[in-house]
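Hey, I'm writing a tutorial for new members on how sequence and structure tokens pair up, and I'd like a real worked example in the thread rather than a made-up one. If someone can provide the structure for the chain below, I'll link this post from the tutorial.
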Amino acid sequence: MIRRPPRSTLSSSSAASDVYKRQVSTQSTGKPHCSDMLGATYTAARASFDSMGSMIAALTFVPAPGMHNLSSTNDQQGNPLFPGVIVLGPVASIKEQAPLQYATRLCSRGFSSMVFDCRTYGESEGEPRRREDGDMKVADVKAAVGFMLDTLPVDPNKLYLLGICQGVNWVLRAATLDDRIKAISLVAGNYLTPEVSKMIVGPGQYEQRITESKASQDKFDQEGQVDYLPVVKSNPDEEALLGHPPPKDFYTPWLARGPWLAYKGEWENRVTRMSEHKLWTHDIYDDVPNLKTPTLMIHADNAANGEVMPKKLFEDLPLEPAQKELVWLGSAGHLQFYDDPVLVDECVAHITGFLGAR
């Protein structure tokens, strides 16, 4: 039996949420509507849910009742149930960045969607602030799945995950642990292995950074003191989680603050130093053998990991040919997958096509 869950935990009462309250008008149908640039209709709301005792701040997007697509169903009262997608973004990111670009477009195509700040990030609770921890993110994703099923008009047989950049690692792991997740999409994945991480950090720095991170973890465990390092460099001599110029060029504008930029969320250029030893020793191949969930991979020549590793990973996915698909988007650059409107549109078309066929 398909049920239509209650929506009582949605909230848009705070002043900051006004940015996400679309102006509602009434057409001849008498139904509330709001339109994005593609002419599709959806409603947006702020929401919150619990993950391991911390409040998680989210944005939800629900198609208008008339926005049925081929994947839509109905509950016993005839109310629409849509396929649902939860979007998880890159390392140290917030919901207003790349995830939001995909969530609104997915909703315009008839998918309920949701983005959220992982614990310790953005508007969500959790201490110490800005701790990058894959296990915590997987737990947050699983909590988001429960929230979406309990709160939004989503068909429980059509709940999906989308991971972007490093988010792919935690999306894939979550899929191996939670059979409520029916398919996953992995976009421009920075698929972590120790070998990949050595290239990101730099071969000459890798062991030292791991050692320093473990020492920082010990200091926190024993004294409660938190050490931070920047996510991106503010000067060439500075050490940072992501030391290459492209991430700096993308993330630096997100530091701008002011009431006129409140819609951009609460990104900070810092991450706990004790995050690094778990992050840079993660190996996605620990989870790959356990994957049974249909999987779409979207990548390009100049996306993270280059050409060889993602193609090999795709071949190694233990899925039947009909249950996996690799889409290669030429020479597109990695950061284009974050917010290039043309490329994101193309990705979303592939994602909805793959998910719609489930």
